[in-house]
């Protein structure tokens, strides 16, 4: 324990310097979905590879057809396990920019009403702040002990916010380099400020853009209205048809592979004392809008969804334009659970749309990522070890929770490399990731580093 | 007839100069719906007032809370009727700009495949080219005879493309100045290239923007998806509900005041040899998409509609963003026929939306213009006189037709000033008004001027 204690002290003493490094990374606008920021994505990758090399990793930037990967490796003591840590350096777009109280790429530290410090910037939580907690733990270990307690491979990708198109080919091409005993991911939340969490389930994701087209040009709604097909109306009808009155998705076969959560797991979830009214109230809502008769935790952790993430057609500027648009577009995503098949669901959706196209109308489809859900065994020894370490750092014992979000890599680690993935993150529910004024708590950043030091120490002593 | 002949010659000889004047007007980007072009709207008004004064009208620009009016007056011979001519100098927005083959505000003359010349610019047909046909007819009359054959008041507004908010108050405030024996409007189409048309019916319009709001900010569709209300989905459902399976509008009371067209009128329409397949085929369609069992002419001339003219919500940029939007917006318009009441329909729509809002959701409404339909008596002596004059200019006799579009002023002339409105225009169905590459045929511009000279001459001889 002597060396762990000195590592933890080292982290405490160097918090300001670790913040400087995080701020340098946050200043790079690495928005992966927008081609205008491709250079910045590479800049973020170069930054991270350089930083890992400085710590003592063998680190490199690897090109892909999209944004590059950062791959770094450091051997551990003989007999110790080897882990693969995954994070992503890309961030979400920042619109609507006018709702930010400061420049999203000029990080600042603010105090909240309770005097707690928070780091405000795009990517502060998702995922730059989180991934740096692990990097800083490794740095402190090396500084204090000259080594790491287990072998560590680090993989940072730059396309997580845009469907990870290069990830699977990269895993397939570098299986040997990436293979480890288990994977660690830091892209998730605490249960609450005092309770760390290990996520045992993650929803999968199918993203799809559909463009419905009718006339060969925009039409005057006076001359043609009543006779011409209106793509916005047709697309609206398709979207409306996607759910029944009970909030269930109507795609044929959609619920194939969806299990009911076992009663004992539901009992654990109930014991978490989750407040639906707080969860919804924080964003201005009060009633769960999903499937009738399901709790919010069920709706977001164990049930699949269909959501429209964006839609546009016709004239949307100031004033009014009496036009019938030639086309209308929607970005639609499905969150998947258990054994739902992303390919089958994409196919069913396309057929669903085709079946509803009236005469003279066509649909174009553009895929945006697809990944299955993952579901870990509750009795995994990796979970037990991480839980033990986390419970020493935080006031409360670690909670085993589900997750509504999707981290495609976790499913692929299982499929491609046969590894379990330990999802441990230090975000909070109000971090506003994907929204204006994203933040990461200073305590998340600080104790996150300490938590990883404890987990590495614990794993080094055997799983 | 001697003076009419010399006026017609004068028009023929001065065609190039009349084109120069039209081009000067077309170069002014008077887009009324976009506040950035307010100065240009005033510039267009000043241009027209100056031109009318140069002809010999008593002309002025009149301020309104929105864009200004142009009002001009020229007395006629004692005992001759006095007419009010109406047009609008404002134009539609130009997006999508990339589909224009030349700058929308740098007019050019192009030849089509048949060697016919066409004037290409935003507003070439709607309505700058059309209104200038009347102005040029007056100019030629004054040049050749020193007077006009009947009294003429001219009213040009600058808000026709954005719901005419200032028009009704202006009519109410200037009844005495505007009162005439009949109104003339040049904002409609020919039946075909050889057949002039007088429109006996015009659909009314109710424009409404609706904003559906749910959460107080954009949400991550992973964390909240399944539990949070999605405004795009809710608005899509509302839009889908607006029509039944037969294409009828489902708003309660929507069809109050909608008559069936008498059989003899339907017989006249059938005699026009209208080709549904040509009309739809020209814009890439083949099947009438409106109410089941109605012809295209019925659907566009005598039946009311509900159309979505624009819709937007969530992330619509490049790539994908897994967001649940805080709000979604749609611009919706209703075309009205016969005695449908715009106020009642606006109210019914708002109630329809409110009735379909789930818990935690609200709707905001922004009105964008409302006007009833107009329906002229088929036996009007004004129609007979105009028909006689038009039939002398063009190869074929004038057709009495319905109109799918809305010209709010026509209803208000009836309500406020007790006048019938004669709708005579020289546009063609492929003029692409409201679309990229709007054009006006050179023959429309030339023979339109000659047609107005003939109509003024004929009206001057008594109705």
UniProtKB/TrEMBL annotation, chains A, B:
Domain Peptidase M20 dimerisation: 201-360
GO molecular function, one term: peptidase activity
Entry keyword set: Hydrolase, Metal-binding, Protease
SUPFAM superfamilies: Zn-dependent exopeptidases
Gene Ontology biological process terms, A to Z: proteolysis
Protein name: M20/M25/M40 family metallo-hydrolase
């Amino acid at each position: 324990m002597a060396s762990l204690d000195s590592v933890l002290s080292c982290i405490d003493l160097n918090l300001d310097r670790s913040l400087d490094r995080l701020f340098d990374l946050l200043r790079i606008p690495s928005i992966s979905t927008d081609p205008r920021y491709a250079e910045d994505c590479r800049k973020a990758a170069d930054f991270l590879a350089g930083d890992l090399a400085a710590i003592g990793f063998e680190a490199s930037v690897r090109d892909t057809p999209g944004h590059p990967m950062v791959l770094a490796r450091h051997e551990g003591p003989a007999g110790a396990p080897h882990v693969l840590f995954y994070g992503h350096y890309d961030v979400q777009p920042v619109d609507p920019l006018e709702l930010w109280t400061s420049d999203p790429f000029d990080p600042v530290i603010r105090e909240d009403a309770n005097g707690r410090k928070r780091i405000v910037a795009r990517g502060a939580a998702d995922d730059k702040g989180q991934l740096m907690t692990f990097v800083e733990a490794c740095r402190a270990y090396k500084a204090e002990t000259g080594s790491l307690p287990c072998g560590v491979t680090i993989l940072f990708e730059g396309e997580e916010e845009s469907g990870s198109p290069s990830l699977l080919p990269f895993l397939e091409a570098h299986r040997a380099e990436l293979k480890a005993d288990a994977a660690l991911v830091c892209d998730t939340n605490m249960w609450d400020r005092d309770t760390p969490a290990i996520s045992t389930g993650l929803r999968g994701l199918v993203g799809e853009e559909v463009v419905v087209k009718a006339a060969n040009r925009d039409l005057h709604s006076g001359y043609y209205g009543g006779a011409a097909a209106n793509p916005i109306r047709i697309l609206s009808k398709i979207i409306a048809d996607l759910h029944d009155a009970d909030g269930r998705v109507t795609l044929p076969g959609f619920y194939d592979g969806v299990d009911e959560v076992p009663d004992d797991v539901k009992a654990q979830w109930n014991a978490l004392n989750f407040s639906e009214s707080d969860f919804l109230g924080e964003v201005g809502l009060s009633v769960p809008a999903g499937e009738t008769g399901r709790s919010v935790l069920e709706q977001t952790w164990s049930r699949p969804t269909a959501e429209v993430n964006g839609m546009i057609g016709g004239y949307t500027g100031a004033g009014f334009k009496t036009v019938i648009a030639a086309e209308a577009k929607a970005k639609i995503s499905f969150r998947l659970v258990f054994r739902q098949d992303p390919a089958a669901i994409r196919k069913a959706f396309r057929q669903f749309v085709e079946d509803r196209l009236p005469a003279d109308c066509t649909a174009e489809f553009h895929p945006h990522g697809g990944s299955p859900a993952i579901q870990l065994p509750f009795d995994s020894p990796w979970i037990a070890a991480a839980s033990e370490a986390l419970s020493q750092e935080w006031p409360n014992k670690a909670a085993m929770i589900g997750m509504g979000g999707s981290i495609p890599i976790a499913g692929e680690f299982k499929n491609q490399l046969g590894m379990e993935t330990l999802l441990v993150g230090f975000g909070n529910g109000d971090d506003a990731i994907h929204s204006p004024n994203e933040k990461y708590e200073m305590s998340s950043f600080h104790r996150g580093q300490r938590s990883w030091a404890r987990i590495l120490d614990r794993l080094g002593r055997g799983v």
